Amino acid sequence: MINKQVSSPAEALADVFDGAVVMVSGFGEAGSPIELIHALIDQGARELTVVSNNCGSGEVGLAALLKAGRVRKVVCSFPRTANSTVFPDLYHSGKIELELVPQGTLAERIRAGGAGIPAFYTPAAVGTPLAEGKESRDFDGKTYLMERGLKADFALIKGKAADNHGNVIYNKTARNFGPIMAMGSKTAIVQVEEVVSAGEIDPEVVVSPGIFVDRVVEVAQPAHESELVAAGVSYP
After folding, report:
1. Is residue 125 part of a domain?
2. Residue 34's domain spans which residues?
3. CA distance 81 to 14
């Protein structure tokens, strides 16, 4: 089997192209791939569509990617969170587009995309502005909205450990978006604290099988977004 380990985040992201759809894992810093995002800033791709749970904090990670002017559109659930200033400023000045999606719907859209399901029905957002322009249908006397599955060209994911065949395990809440984003992208790139040889991870604890992962890169001591924000770090 192919060795999926690459030497650096820069190598892992070398082929991200202008206009790409990029999923970015998160749900807390356990799943936020800071080093991959910063490498994407250095790489220079522009006009990106980013799919993520939120828009980052401070001026590091995802927020730094937005501040660098590389993102055309964001598809997310929480565009404004604690310590979030970059996205609100860009949005209110008309410099970025937003597609707001309820969190559960976002997760299911990504999962559906990875499973080859083009659309599904959900009661979330019925009767709200988010329902405008969407097809609706009644089932058993209840109204549901049709939502489309989401797919991406690339996914930037943070795991805990992986083997060189791409089998990945995660740290706690990183499992909320990491595994489905690996499934829903053409090229899944995972940063982990340790890459081991095939066979060293118990198959019973693997969360993302290697068939869904294209590249793994070892970042032994990953940065923590909250610590960078508290220190007032701005990238680059």
Report:
1. no
2. 5-119+149-227
3. 30
Whether residue 56 lies inside any domain: the answer is: yes
- Cβ(83)–Cβ(58) below 8 Å: yes
Q: Give the Cα separation of 145 and 138 in Å (integer).
A: 9
Q: Report the run of H or E that residue 188 belongs to, with start and end.
A: strand 185-192
Is 89 strand, coil or helix?
Answer: helix
- pLDDT tens-digit profile of 98-140? 999 999 999 999 999 999 999 999 999 999 999 999 999 999 9
Residue-level pLDDT at 6: 97
Backbone region of residue 94 per phi and psi (left: phi > 0; alpha: psi in -120 to 50; beta: other values): left
Output the six-digit token pair for 88. Answer: 């609100």
CB atoms within 10 A of CB 194: 14
Residue that is written with structure tokens 């740290």 in the block: 171
Tell me whether residue 131 is in a domain: no
| 179, part of any domain | yes
pLDDT tens column, 23-81? 999 887 888 999 999 999 999 999 999 999 999 889 999 999 999 999 999 999 999 87
Residue 85 pLDDT: 85
CATH of the domain at 24: 3.40.1080.10
| Total number of domains constituting the chain | 1
